[in-house]
Specification:
about 140 residues, HIT family, subunit A, 5-stranded antiparallel beta sheet, HIT_Hint, EC 2.1.1.-
Length: about 140
């Protein structure tokens, strides 16, 4: 079985760096806000060099990732009271392991379909971005 070369250290994929904003550094993951004001959308990126798939994490890391997904989901539910929470680890275009946690609402721009490819991302205005990060940060610390 061919293995993917693993870098010596963790680096955030350049596309994730462009598409997301930092919120918090958790025990395993960087917690980031996707720059799409259509949905409250968090991305968890495990700081594990070379990780592409869940199976690239050891058992302890997988358990910790599950706990951090739970934290992100509860954060979105507590702040936004969505109808549904979507959780996905796709990574077809960005191979670095990352997990999306998305708050969904009946009547959101893609409802009830998946968010990918439905409507163009709507970047946050600078003011809305500051407010969204402040709101999520306060809830994280709460």
């Amino acid at each position: 079985m061919a293995r993917h070369p693993e870098p010596d250290h963790y680096e955030l994929h350049p596309q994730l760096a462009v598409d997301t904003h930092p919120l918090s550094s958790l025990a395993l993951c960087d917690l980031r806000l996707l720059d799409d004001a259509n949905y409250p959308w968090l991305v968890l990126v495990p700081r594990v060099a070379g990780a592409r798939e869940l199976v690239d994490l050891d058992a302890a890391q997988r358990h910790l990732l599950t706990d951090e997904i739970d934290l992100a989901a509860r954060l979105l539910r507590g702040v936004f009271q969505p109808f549904k929470l979507n959780v996905a680890a796709l990574g077809n275009l960005v191979p670095q392991l990352h997990v999306h946690v998305i708050a969904r609402f009946e009547g959101d721009p893609a409802w009830p379909a998946p968010v990918w490819g439905r409507v163009a991302a709507r970047p946050y205005s600078p003011e809305a971005l500051v407010e969204r990060i402040r709101l999520l940060d306060a809830a994280l610390r709460g």
